[in-house]
Amino acid sequence: MSATGKQETEEEETAVDTARHQLERAAAHLDIDEGIIERLKHPDQVHRVSVPLERDDGSTELLTGYRAQHDSVRGPFKGGMRYHPGVTEEECIGLSMWMTWKCAVMDIPFGGAKGGIVVNPKDLSTDEKERLTRRFTQELRDFVGPMHDIPAPDMGTDAETMAWFMDAYSMQEGETQPGVVTGKPPVVGGSYGRDEAPGRSVAIVTREACDYYDFPLEDTTIAVQGFGSVGANAARLLDDWGANVVAVSDVNGAIYDPEGLDTRDVPTHEEEPEAVMSYDAPQKLSNEELLELDVDVLVPAAIGNVITAENANDVQADVVVEGANGPTTTAGDEILRKNGVHVVPDILANAGGVTVSYFEWLQDINRRKWSKERVNEELEEEMLSAWNDVRAEVEARDIPWREAAYVVALSRVAEAHEARGLWP
Ligand code: NAD
């Protein structure tokens, strides 16, 4: 039951509810001071700012922006900035908590943050988006910084937005500060390999999961929902490594070839938006049918909440690797668990993005660029190390991958709180 006495349905579970449930579930396995758990249920700070935007027609509109900063015990706050009409304070808080766990499971010395502006980016001209970003940066200037809080792109924002953010911040500081944001274009301190990183980490983790469950890659069938940055990069790498990617999809539907698709020939979201269905495949399916295919591995890599109480019983894959953020609802997850489906969680699988963001920040503060080869090598190393840490908990405690990932993350955050103590 919710605080209002209403029966909570799947739809009503907010990001912060989900984040707190996951925290409690992980805490049940660990002996952690209640005071620390209570602190971790709440953000350190939430900033709410008013952002006046001068429209192209000369009128002024007042927009609202947020930055939730959850926990910085292991290092500066880190997380995306989204421009979306559905941005709320609660959502930013929930997503900032997820970022804390994602950084901790990867053992990256950052804490979690998330922010954004309540705006539909499709209603903004490029000039308006630039003015809005520069003013938002100014409103947040006291709360962000390379050693304090480092935003990144998210829904509705991109490398160009980050370049404006970095420029506005740097102009006010009087010196170039590329480390204030990540996900920038490489020419202004962005990292090579950052765009492909979340998809690459999904591919690495899928490969490791196949190895763990004794599916030789060349005999493994994989279905990938979403053929954008995460889905297409993951699908193509797995295809390169010998796996049979039999189905991929975009918002319009899915293509299916039981013999395996040539994923390099299927247009990605970036190459030609929403053109997956134009590929000449033996069968066309709906996105719902893709999720229910009898494959070894299912990679939901499009949007959140696609595996729910309604369809989880129809998932036939042995392993689900979460490419998108939050593709499985709590109720859907429970059903998969009962059915013996192994779910490798988003905070581990797509953490290549934040990991290469960390590499970008290291390059920025050290003023030393890494080659793409070095980025990919170090990403591989970090992913294997995180995979092994989570696997050790799966085996030692006989718990699912999601719970194990949260146990690893929470242990690290809680130990850091213990070690630093509570300043009066
Ligand atoms: P993207 O915009 O590059 O691609 C999204 C793909 O999903 C497109 O092919 C689109 O057609 C498809 N899609 C959209 N709505 C759909 C629907 N209702 N059903 C089926 N397909 C649909 O996005 P992306 O960057 O690949 O992000 C995908 C997911 O991964 C999101 O949940 C995002 O939060 C998460 N993620 C992204 C990154 C990143 O850095 N790109 C990092 C971590 C997590």
Describe the structure.
With 424 residues, the chain is α/β, with parallel strands linked by helices. Among the domains are: 35-177, 3-Layer(aba) Sandwich (Rossmann fold), CATH 3.40.50; 197-344, 3-Layer(aba) Sandwich (Rossmann fold). The protein has 13 helices and 12 strands. It has helices at 15-27, 34-40, 89-105, 126-139, 159-173, 197-212, 229-240, 287-291, 330-338, 346-349, 352-366, 372-397, 401-420; strands at residues 45-54, 60-71, 77-84, 111-118, 149-153, 221-225, 244-250, 253-256, 283-285, 297-300, 319-321, 342-344. Strand 6, helix 7 (229-240) and strand 7 (244-250) form a beta-alpha-beta unit. Helix 4 (126-139) packs across helix 5 and helix 6 (197-212) packs across helix 12. The longest helix has 26 residues, at 372-397. The protein is globular, with a radius of gyration of 21 Å. It starts with 14 loop residues before the first helix and ends with a helix. The model is unreliable at 1-9 (pLDDT under 50). Nicotinamide-adenine-dinucleotide is lined by residues 198, 225-231, 249-251, 269, 274, 287, 301-304, 323-325, 350, 353. Nicotinamide-adenine-dinucleotide (NAD) is lined by residues 198, 225-231, 249-251, 269, 274, 287, 301-304, 323-325, 350, 353.
